[in-house]
């Protein structure tokens, strides 16, 4: 099936949801969601792109005139409209709000917008322009649509998984050679880029930019040691790991808009008793999740299984807030593996399994794998060794 056909199916499902909720029109602006419904990523969002659709009409991809050539080539929605002036392109209007009003016309009922994303100015302006009966949030509706990945999405995530595997593996190899966190991260990132050149060169690795910056390259590797691990995400430093350290190389990648991640905590030499106990508990917590990981299990049960292990090991005071999260167009996508999440696992979901401990006094331990839920269980998409990983530094 061509990727445009997957977009068509997603649009059809969105229309069904609109009919069920009696929503007359939707305005979608979040870049990840625009990508989901069009396969178009503008990379930089200084001028927002939109999916605009009446329940009884065809979807429209609305972009600023400067994005027209890009949208025409990569967007899988035939109906592309423009706003704003750029070159000889002819826009519907100067502003997106005015263009959306032209596209939708009069709406007497409900309009759906992503109220967890859209800014207040846009929300108020759309209310003035269109004057619907009410504006309702479709954020949860879209999140629930995206929770089950189709064949195309899973294929993209598999490519990203191969990239992050290599990124972390390479970082570990260079840490063994005596490289610093920053140096090992650079080598890991370079290895990912070379794999992209050789195997995935026709697949875009851009991320989703903000209103003030773009993300041309989503191939990221970073590495943190000891207390620095408690930061979670941060720039690697020119710290040279030594005997007794915990070091955490991590990698993220997007292929054609879809994310995967890999994280591996490594032991340098030998650990003290406390850190070794933490590391062992992390491996046991992961094992407890994988034992019950299959369709029909609640997300909260995964959390509780890991939390029980950590409590049994004496770490009940620093339990993680979650032990994994959804993966897709976002690095951290809905839903999270948290104690109050009663959603059931279903085939086609892609999540991370990463029960971890973090503490500012000693650091942290965490392996993260990207995992596909299958009809009968699961498939780990990241293939790198995920047990006890110990290295010696070659000085």
Molecular structure report:
- The protein has two domains: 3-146, Creatinase/prolidase N-terminal domain (Creatine Amidinohydrolase, Chain A, domain 1, 3-Layer(aba) Sandwich), CATH 3.40.350; 151-391, Alpha-Beta Complex (Creatine Amidinohydrolase).
- The protein has helices at 3-21, 31-38, 68-74, 96-104, 120-130, 139-146, 151-176, 181-199, 273-292, 299-312, and strands at 23-28, 50-54, 60-64, 80-83, 110-113, 134-137, 220-225, 246-255, 258-263, 266-268, 325-326, 333-336, 350-353, 357-359, 363-365, 369-373, 378-380, 390-391.
- The chain is built from ten helices and 18 strands.
- It starts with a helix and ends with a strand.
- A hairpin with a 5-residue loop joins strand 2 (50-54) and strand 3.
- The chain has 395 residues and is α+β, with helices and mostly antiparallel strands.
- The strands form five sheets. Strands 4-3-2-1-5-6 form a six-stranded mixed beta sheet, with helices on both faces. Strands 7, 8, 9, 10 and 18 form a five-stranded mixed beta sheet that branches.
Number of DSSP strand runs? 18
Number of H- or I-type helical stretches: 10
CATH C-level label of the largest domain:
Alpha Beta
List low-pLDDT spans.
Answer: none
The SSE order reads HEHEEHEHEHEHHHEEEEHHEEEEEEEE
Mean pLDDT: 96
The helix content, as a percent range, equals 25-40%
Based on the coordinates given, report the CATH architecture of the largest domain.
Answer: Alpha-Beta Complex
Compute the number of structural domains.
2
Per DSSP, what share of the residues sits in E-state strands of 2 or more residues?
15-25%
**CATH fold naming of the largest domain:** Creatine Amidinohydrolase
The biggest sheet, with number of strands, parallel, antiparallel or mixed sense and barrel status, is: 6 strands, mixed
The name of the CATH superfamily of the largest domain reads Creatinase/methionine aminopeptidase superfamily
**Quaternary state, please?**
single chain
Shape type: globular
Whole-number radius of gyration? 23 Å
Q: What is the SS-derived class?
A: alpha+beta
Q: What is the spatial order of strands in the main beta sheet? A: 4-3-2-1-5-6
* First-last Cα distance: 52 Å
